Amino acid sequence: MRLDHVGVATQDAASLAAQYASLFDAEIVHEEEFDGMNVCFLDLGNAYLELLEPTGEETTIGRYLDENGPGMHHVAFITDDIEAALANAREDGVSLVDEEPREGAWGHTVAFLHPRDTGGVLVEYVEH
Ligand code: CO
To answer: Which of 26, 78, 98, 115 could anchor a disulfide with 4, C-beta 3.0 to 4.6 Å?
Structure first.
């Protein structure tokens, strides 16, 4: 497994994307509205940054920003067998946010682990 992306919650994905593109020499490679978010991916060469901007206050990311403010939201690891990765996490006693893999942004298949069992880090498994 290796790092796929770091997710960042923001109220303004477009301007943060422009800043990150310049700061990190990263190319904006994907943008879409998905599940109450404007999502933007920047390619760093060996990993991505995923910017998450809520489309409204009553969305998952809208509520997250309300409570925590902008900043790092999750870390995503890529696997070529997300079912096996989830089964392994379950076996290790890690609470799952998603009991089953589901569709994520960019057509990816994703599942989140609960941060209470992963050192306070919201972990995403992603397969694509
Ligand atoms: Co993500």
So the answer is: 78
Mean pLDDT, the chain, integer: 97
Q: How far away, in angstroms, is 62 Cα from ligand 1 center? A: 16
The pair of three-digit structure tokens given for residue 17, joined into one six-digit string: 């994307």
Distance 69 CA to ligand 1 centre (A): 18
Ligand 1 centroid–CA 127 distance in Å is 11
To 10 degrees, the CA torsion angle through 98, 115, 33, 13?
A: -170
83-123 pLDDT per residue, tens? 999 999 999 999 999 999 999 999 999 999 999 999 999 99
Distance 66 CA to ligand 1 centre (A): 19
Which residues are bridge partners to 41 per DSSP?
A: 30, 50
What is the CA angle 88-90-91, rounded to 5?
65
The Cα 37–Cα 58 span in angstroms is 11
Domains, the chain, ranges and CATH? Answer: 2-127 (3.10.180.10)
